[in-house]
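Private note to self, pasted from the team thread so I don't lose it. Backbone tokens:
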């Protein structure tokens, strides 16, 4: 005896019954609740879109203001530096005490110009994601090139620099961010470890790559290890060398953009070691 549909409801009968039971026309209160929920969601989305638009406009205004300010500041600083150099290199003899003060003033101007340049390049790089600006490079060669550009500062600080690397380390990184990490860490080591050796070690790690910059300067107490990366933070008395407290903040921001981490190992009188971990190998 074969299987038959006799005595069983057809698919049409079954689904028709379900359709009748699920008809919203028979539950007006549910329809009203659903419409209210949808209306609330639409209002919420509109509010979020408006807030996002206002936030983007605010960021653009801030970027424009910073770019304009840094650009306008560099021009008069350049003129001041040229005037100082013209006096220092004039054939007419200049008293020693005046020459000394002019040389100090030129150092201040050069430092301020470099700070402005760093801020401008950093703000520009912020407009592009680190991934979008990444390019293939050899980290060892790039680090040597970046440190080579600081040769004059290193010589003036009378620091011996030792670079240790396992060999070529290839990966993809944003050059602006990576350059700021290396130059600011080396610059910090020069400021607080002048006259003493400076060691830089570059190698692979479980996270990707590791950059370690060590000095033999004054060191920092453990309670200050996190604060030193905050903007405008200065834990030592203000001097010409200490700047305005942006260097290590830039290091932290640039490391964050590269999806890495930075930490400090230091103690008073024992120097400082900055350890940067980056993906990318």
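Design output:
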């Amino acid at each position: 005896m074969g299987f038959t549909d006799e005595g069983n409801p057809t698919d049409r009968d079954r689904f028709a019954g379900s359709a009748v039971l699920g008809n919203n026309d028979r539950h007006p209160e549910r329809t009203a609740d659903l419409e209210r929920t949808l209306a609330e969601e639409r209002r919420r989305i509109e509010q979020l879109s408006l807030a996002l638009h206002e936030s983007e406009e605010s960021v653009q205004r801030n970027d424009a203001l910073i770019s304009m300010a840094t650009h306008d500041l560099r021009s008069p600083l350049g003129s001041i530096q040229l005037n100082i150099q013209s006096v220092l290199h004039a054939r007419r003899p200049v008293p020693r005490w005046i020459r000394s003060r002019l040389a100090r003033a030129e150092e201040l101007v050069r430092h301020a110009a470099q700070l402005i340049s760093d801020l401008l390049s950093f703000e520009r790089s912020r407009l592009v994601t680190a991934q979008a600006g990444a390019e293939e490079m050899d980290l060892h060669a790039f680090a040597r090139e970046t440190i080579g550009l600081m040769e004059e500062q290193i010589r003036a600080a009378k620091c011996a620099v030792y670079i240790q690397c396992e060999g070529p380390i290839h990966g993809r990184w944003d050059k602006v961010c990576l350059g700021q990490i290396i130059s600011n860490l080396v610059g910090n080591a020069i400021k607080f470890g002048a006259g003493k050796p400076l060691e830089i070690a570059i190698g692979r790690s479980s996270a990707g790559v590791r950059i370690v910059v060590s000095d033999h300067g004054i060191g920092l107490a453990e309670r200050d290890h996190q604060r030193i990366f905050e903007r405008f933070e200065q834990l030592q008395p203000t001097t010409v060398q200490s700047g305005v407290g942006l260097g290590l903040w830039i290091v932290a921001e640039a490391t964050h953009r590269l999806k890495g981490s930075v930490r400090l190992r230091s103690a008073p009188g024992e120097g400082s070691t900055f350890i940067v971990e980056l993906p990318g190998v």
